Amino acid sequence: MDEIISLLHGFSVALTPFNLALMAVGILLGVIIGVLPGLGGANGVAILLPLTFSMPPTSAIIMLSCIYWGALFGGAITSILFNIPGEPWSVATTFDGHPMARQGRADEALTAAFTSSFIGALFAVIVITFLAPLVAKFALRFGPAEFFAVFFLTFASFIGMGRGSPMKVVAAMCLGFALGVVGLDKMTGTLRFTFGHEELLSGFDFLIAVIGLFGIGEILSSIEDGLKFQGAHAKIRLGAVFTTWKKLLSYWGTSLRSCLIGCWMGITPGGATPASFMSYGLAKRFSPRGANFGRGEMEGVVAPETAAHAAGTSALLPMLTLGIPGSPTAAVLLGGLMIWGLQPGPMLFVEQKEFVWGLIASMYLGNLAGLIIVITCVPLFAAILRIPFSIVAPVILVVCAIGAYTVHNSMFDVWMMVVFGLVGYAFNKLDYPLAPLVLAIVLGDKAEEGFRQALLGSQGSLSVFFSNWLVGGIMGLGIILALWPAFGWIKSKFSSGSATGTAG
After folding, report:
1. Smallest Cα–Cα separation from 65: which of 367, 402, 322?
2. What dihedral angle (degrees, nearest 10) is formed by the CA atoms of 352, 357, 359, 360?
3. Among 143, 191, 229, 497, which residue is least crowded by beta carbons within 10 Å?
4. Element containing residue 191 per DSSP (H, E)
5. Is the pLDDT of residue 438 over 50?
6. How far apart are CA 454 and CA 153, in angstroms?
7. What is the value of pTM for the model shown?
């Protein structure tokens, strides 16, 4: 009941004319960012974050979160009409979405994608509404050891549940940890790795890093790939909208399963990309029309879109309650909160109730506004893709440079943005993940602080991390996840050895 009352108060905050206008602007910017490959939610939020410095924190986070929702919606447009994933998670949407468009059913595919996205996000927001306060209350009992255990579990989740090479994940994290320790040591007051540069006394600015890594790095990769857009024109007919909505009722089981998968992967944090593929695979396996998947089956659009939006939205739950982002975009938003002087975590629900519940209320309104805007403006957004990328890319690079300069009005930050951009480009070329790097930059110093405080309290004994069932359980789960790839490798070697012996 308390949650309902707090949510109603949040609606009173979100429904001010200024915040409603920011929602609309954020959704429009987000959709544009989502339809342009080379950007995406995390990149767009990072690039546009400097625009919010003069806003109140509540209004700023509402606008940035709506950019995020809009980018999630926008990724489906390029996937279906152009067979170009606007986001990594929208790859699964292309499997059936683009065949539907080629069959002249683009309006059905887009309506199914947008509606499923809304349902997935709505389910996740309801979970956040009722679960986040409980998690925050529980987390108030955490000490330094417990917080370090949660940080460790988060890092371990990327190793054990991430896609790609675990060694590359570890390498990216180590680089993030190394960058995170630069500057003034908060516990001893000594300088670390500044090399005489006064600009590094406060460490590498998080905003500069993400603008370079995401904005510059992705654009350089896109320029090298030489993007050319070729796709079908689309117009959503009102009759097709209602017909599609009627069909979607028969997929309620797929939608519910995808919502649960998405929320789990968003909170853990597995991410939207594995959630979309997992949901698509399960839908294909259990659907009576599974043989039609890949040929233009609507259920093949419903499953990944629902799961991806549920995962992307639920990733904000650990960020708000524990200060641990569940996705790269959530990591960028976490950095924004710190810039505005807010400390994500359980105390946020105690000290900043207006901010928290205003944000949660805006999630309901922002996703509804996003659904209406994308359904009515599809032809406009599709036309954006026909602007030559040779025009779009320089504009984005200039916006990134301006955003980096405005942080401290320093050209040093612009040059650091370029350096981080080259690092992001190298990571893309070598197939190293950026999310663990960003996570380590954001949380590395906090994890170090919790670790050292816990050891000081225990006089250097590591047993403090197994001193009770809570911290011991979290640490144990983290160790299992961190070693999970090694278990898989040993199992594969054992299996291959057994097969060789049998053959011999």
Report:
1. 367
2. 140
3. 497
4. strand 191-192
5. yes
6. 16
7. 0.71
pLDDT at 169: 85
Yes or no: say if 280 and 300 are a contact pair by the CB < 8 Å rule.
yes
Unique residue bearing structure tokens 């405005």: 406
* Chain centroid to CA 231: 27
- Phi, psi for 131 (deg, rounded to 5): -95, -35
At a CB cut-off of 8 Å and minimum separation 6, what does 298 contact? 96, 100, 108, 109, 112, 244, 247, 248, 251
Q: How far apart are CA 466 and CA 468, in angstroms?
A: 6
Say if residues 369 and 24 touch (Cβ distance below 8 Å). Answer: yes
End-to-end CA distance of the chain: 68
Q: Which residue is listed with tokens 């925050």?
A: 136
> Is residue 366 in some structural domain?
yes
What pLDDT is recorded for position 232? 47
| Total structural domains within the chain | 1
Judge contact between 404 and 413, C-beta under 8 A.
Answer: yes
The alpha carbon of 254 is separated from its chain's Cα centroid by a whole number of angstroms, namely: 23
Q: Which pLDDT does position 123 carry in this prediction? A: 92
| CA 399/CA 483 separation, integer angstroms | 42
The residue with tokens 């040591």 is: 185
Question: In a 3-state reduction of DSSP, which class is residue 15?
Answer: coil
CA distance 215 to 206: 13
Instruction: Work out the average pLDDT over 419-442.
Output: 83
Give the residue, 73 or 378, on which the prediction is more confident: 73
Q: Give CA separation, 321 vs 138, 221, 244, 309, 338, in Å.
A: 10, 35, 37, 20, 14
- Tell me how crowded residue 78 is: count the other CB atoms within 10 A of its CB: 28
Q: What is the average pLDDT across 450-475?
A: 85
pLDDT higher than threshold 80 for residue 35: no
The 8-class DSSP code of residue 213 comes to: I
For residue 381, give its domain range.
Answer: 2-488
Say if residues 359 and 217 touch (Cβ distance below 8 Å): no
DSSP label of 211: I
* Residues 176/439, Cβ–Cβ less than 8 Å: yes
* pLDDT one-digit tens code per residue, 156-199: 877 876 666 888 888 988 888 888 888 877 777 777 877 777 77
**Residue 379: predicted pLDDT:** 65
Domain contains 497: no
| C-beta of residue 306 within 8 angstroms of C-beta of residue 279 | yes
DSSP, residue by residue, 318-378: HHHHHS--SSHHHHHHHHHHHHTT---STTHHHH-HHHHHHHHHHHHHHHHHHHHHHHHSH
Specify if 498 maps to a domain.
no
Q: What is the CA radius of gyration of the chain?
A: 23
Instruction: Give, in order, the Cα–Cα distances in Å from 283 to each of 256, 279, 291, 307.
Output: 11, 6, 11, 11
Q: Structure tokens of 46?
A: 């990072």
Rounded to whole angstroms, what are the CA distances from 78 to 74, 404, 426, 458? 7, 29, 25, 54
What's the rounded Cα separation, in Å, for the pair 114 and 122? 12
Contact 68, 329 (CB under 8 A): yes
